Amino acid sequence: MKVEELNAMAVEAMGHAYVPYSGFQVGAALLCADGSVYCGCNIENAAFSPTNCAERTAFFKAVYDGHREFTAIAVCGGKNGVLTGIAAPCGVCRQVMREFCADDFLIYLVGPDGYYETRTLAQLLPDGFSGKDLE
Ligand code: THU
After folding, report:
1. Minimum-distance ligand 1 atom for the alpha carbon of 44
2. Which helix (DSSP H) or strand (DSSP E) does residue 124 occupy?
3. Ligand 1 mean position, distance from CA 42 (Å)
4. What CATH number does the domain containing 10 carry?
5. In this structure, are residues 52 and 23 in contact, taking their beta carbons and an 8 Å threshold?
6. Between the CA atoms of 100, 18, 28 and 53, what dihedral angle is there, to the nearest 10 degrees?
7. Is 55 a catalytic residue?
8. Number of domains forming the structure of the chain
9. pLDDT of the chain along its 135 residues, tens only?
10. Which of 4, 5, 44, 55 is labelled catalytic?
């Protein structure tokens, strides 16, 4: 799959966001090793902390369906769904990525007008804690 296609799926996913408190819509499109794609949006909650980020929605949907290996994720976000720049995943989402993904997992940060930047998980979460630390 072309990166532009994955990015477009993340932009489309933004429109599914449930964001009555922040108005900040986030979309994610997660590419599995077998080529399938799972999309996610952020889902807010009146108690705030139960809010689920778009990236984790995508991961949890995919893991539920039996996927354990992932290649890349495209992420975008903006107030009222309008992209003005890139939005990087929060720390909790980076930790969820670490659970399933290797250092070379790709994260596409999608901005307006087809602009995007690429990061690896190693760049976004250096020295991360993982299952290896529990062995
Ligand atoms: N949000 C995400 O969906 N992903 C992130 O990585 C950062 C933050 C959401 C959570 C909340 O609904 C809104 O953005 C504002 O923080």
Report:
1. 12
2. helix 121-124
3. 6
4. 3.40.140.10
5. no
6. -40
7. yes
8. 1
9. 899 999 999 999 999 999 999 999 999 999 999 999 999 999 999 999 999 999 999 999 999 999 999 999 999 999 999 999 999 999 999 999 999 999 999 999 999 999 999 999 999 999 999 999 999
10. 55
Residue 108 region by backbone torsions, left for phi larger than 0, else alpha for psi between -120 and 50, else beta: beta
Phi, psi of 82 (to 5 degrees): -100, 120
Range of the domain at 73: 3-134
Largest CA distance in the chain: 45
- Six-digit token pair at 84? 């003005």
Half-sphere exposure of 88 (CA within 13 A, CB side): 11
What span, in angstroms and rounded, lies between the C-alpha atoms of 33 and 23? 32
Q: Is 30 exposed, middle or buried (0-12, 13-18, 19+ CB in 10 A)?
A: buried
